[in-house]
Specification:
About 55% of the residues are buried. It is built from 13 helices and 14 strands. A hairpin with a 3-residue loop joins strand 5 and strand 6. It has about 450 residues and is α/β, with parallel strands linked by helices. Helix 1 packs across helix 2, helix 7 packs across helix 8 and helix 11 runs antiparallel to helix 13. It binds zinc ion. Zinc ion binds next to loops.
């Protein structure tokens, strides 16, 4: 297993997370006692798992430590269990006093787009570029299925349209790349990256040879907000976004506040069932495989556009002729996570994933590795285990941003999107799109 603390320090010497390292060495807690912060908790990997299953909000872990989100009361609970939490970093990077009121009603926290803004954006792109863009409704959020408001789950397909393109078929001529974001609602930077990727392709087709090349040869699908009910909850906090990760299904476990919901990145149908059964845990997998409508929508889209290309055994590789790439955007950690999630074992396409990962990392500099080599814990029922395991699509998770500092954590300052995250990841998205024709022949 790689040593995460050493890697973080190596990143810091490039200036990327220097302020974060300084913050990480602080011992005092600058925030008020009621505000959530990141607590660094010395813990073994087994303890990290038990903390998450016990309902603590474990934002990240590395060799020897868990980083738990919570207020002073959470720290006291940890101490009562024998742990020794110390202040690591703030959660809110753009404090209310510094954050101007949103300039537009459809943004929050100095610029992050609401679900309504993302929906308007997709409609505008499809309307402005009928030769390039097709908007789809692929399902409904949990609230919408219950008649409680909510949203459609929306996707956009971008390509220079020829006959048969963007028609929800597994046999279309062009290979496909899917980018999806904000399945974990509070991971704010990810939806903004999806927005910029859509605009780059649609607005630059006429002038940028790379954008033209991609859209002439590839179907690019984007699901900018996979968990819109969750994003509504996050945005309802305004300049103090709420830390909702899961969907808005409040029917299980008597949970309250941002503990409600099912973790949509633990609810997928491939190898479901190895994660938390505690309804209020942040990694609650739900009552059954694919129980949540958001997961049904995503899996329905994937099955509509990708043929099943991999055998049923854990050791059956996707063939070298398999097509299709998928990136699911999360934050944070500066990682590119390759399969498997459900197992510490490497996948039968491991060597090919590491070659592809290296090309993606050439743009963003993220650490390429399996769960064991990056975040350090197993994850059952993830989106990328489904698209790789069930369909053979070359699928990776990006963990966008560092663990601390202004551009770190779940709620980075909005200016970090254009100063850091988009410049670093644009090239990686381009690489993933170009790899869609033959991802296992890198
Ligand atoms: Zn996530």
């Amino acid at each position: 297993m790689l040593s995460r603390p050493l890697l973080r320090i190596a990143l810091a010497t490039t200036g990327l997370v220097l302020t974060g390292v300084l913050a990480g060495t602080a011992t005092a807690q600058p925030a008020s006692a009621g505000a959530p912060v990141f607590w660094r908790v010395p813990a073994t990997s087994a303890q990290v798992v038990s903390l998450a299953k016990a309902g603590f909000d474990v934002g990240e872990s590395d060799a020897g430590s868990a980083y738990v989100v919570g207020d002073q009361a959470v720290a006291n609970r940890l101490r009562a269990l024998g742990y020794q939490p110390s202040f690591f970093d703030t959660v809110y990077k753009d404090l209310p006093a510094a954050a101007p009121r949103a300039a537009a009603a459809d943004t929050f926290y100095s610029g992050y787009r609401t679900v309504a803004a993302q929906e308007t954006h997709l409609a505008q792109v499809a309307s402005a570029h009928p030769d390039l863009a097709t908007k789809y409704t692929i399902g409904q959020s949990w609230k919408k299925t219950k008649g409680q408001g909510g949203h459609d789950i929306q996707a956009i397909c971008l390509t220079k349209k020829q006959a048969g393109d963007c028609t929800l078929t597994t046999s279309s001529p062009k290979p496909k790349f899917v980018l999806m974001a904000q399945i974990h609602a509070r991971e704010l930077s990810t939806g903004e990256l999806a927005w910029r990727w859509i605009d780059y392709l649609a607005d630059s087709y006429a002038t940028d040879p790379t954008a033209k090349s991609i859209l002439d040869t590839t179907e690019v699908w984007v699901v900018p907000i996979a968990n819109p009910d969750g994003v509504d909850i996050v945005a309802s906090g305004g300049n103090s976004p709420k830390l909702q990760r899961k969907n808005a299904n409040n029917t299980r476990g008597g949970c309250s506040g941002t503990n409600i919901g099912i973790d949509l990145n633990r609810n997928s149908t491939f190898k479901w069932g190895g994660d938390s059964n505690s309804a209020c845990a942040e990694t609650y997998q739900g009552p059954s495989a694919g129980s949540e409508p958001e997961v049904k929508a995503l899996e329905g889209l994937f099955r509509s556009i990708y043929p099943a290309q991999r055998g049923p055994g854990n050791n059956d590789p996707a063939p070298v002729t398999a097509r299709g790439t998928m990136i699911t955007l999360h934050s944070y950690g500066n990682d590119i996570i390759i399969p498997w999630g459900f197992s510490q074992a490497t996948s039968p396409n491991d060597a090919q994933y590491r070659k592809l990962g290296a090309k993606l990392s050439a743009s963003n500099g993220y650490l390429v590795g399996t769960n064991a080599e990056t975040v350090g814990y197993d994850t059952s029922g993830t989106t990328d285990d489904f698209t790789y395991g069930a369909l053979g699509v070359a699928s990776v998770t990006f963990e966008v941003g560092g663990s601390s500092g202004t551009c770190g954590g779940f709620l980075p300052k909005y200016t970090c999107v254009d100063s850091t995250f988009w410049p670093k990841n644009k090239g990686a998205f381009i690489t993933a799109a170009k790899a869609a024709a033959a991802p296992y022949q890198q």
